[in-house]
Amino acid sequence: MQVRLLFILRTSERTYRFPLLFITAATSAVGTGLYAAFRPQPQTGIMVAFAAYNGALTGASFFACREYVVSPTLVRFAPWKQYARRRHELGMDAASENALPPRSLRDLRTNKLLDSGTSGALVAGILRAVRSGGQGVIPGMLVAGTACTILQYGYNEMSIARLKYLSKQREDISLPTVEQTGPSKPWSERLLALVGVRVLSDEEYLEKMKKKRDAYLLQIADLERKREERTLDEGNKS
């Protein structure tokens, strides 16, 4: 199960990495548009477009920094268990898989927290230095690093919840269906049984109808016989 969770988690990260750039841009544009709606500003369209551009640029810078600078550096040099496992998965470490401790939910929750926090701090520091000339670089790095760490943790939690849901669905599908000892009675039959009325089965109802049919046939035969006798009596009298 842990291997399957890891595979789906890594696949989902690759799948959603680039759409997240569009989500970042759209979020920036929507936020700016809402701000302009409550506090009208001149050239609102330009502001929204510029916010979307900044959001996309920031997202692209963050993912590029994390995937091509920070993560490779941490994977190569960091001594912690998460990065030792990633080195082994990339073929950089000849350690046996049995030598590595089993992956736990805590490992999934802390997945790439350091990568995202460091990348957010670096990107925020660089952008702050370019735009403000070095003023407020350290506070910007701390705020951005903390925010990116929290967002990565939230993403990990949502991934774990999704994986648990998928795993539960697979377990439900794989469970054998238990055969019932008898057909379940509808609520109407159970209600009638409470008041002493028994519902006949199909076989019992068919047998009852056959008996009624035989009784009706006897009555018909008796009526025909009486009609013939009455006809004969009328003929004799005439």
Automatic annotation (TrEMBL):
User: What are the alphabetically sorted keywords of the record?
Assistant: Membrane, Transmembrane, Transmembrane helix
**Keyword Membrane attributed:** yes
Transmembrane regions: 20-38, 44-65
Question: What is the protein name given in its UniProt record?
Answer: Uncharacterized protein
Source organism? Agrocybe pediades
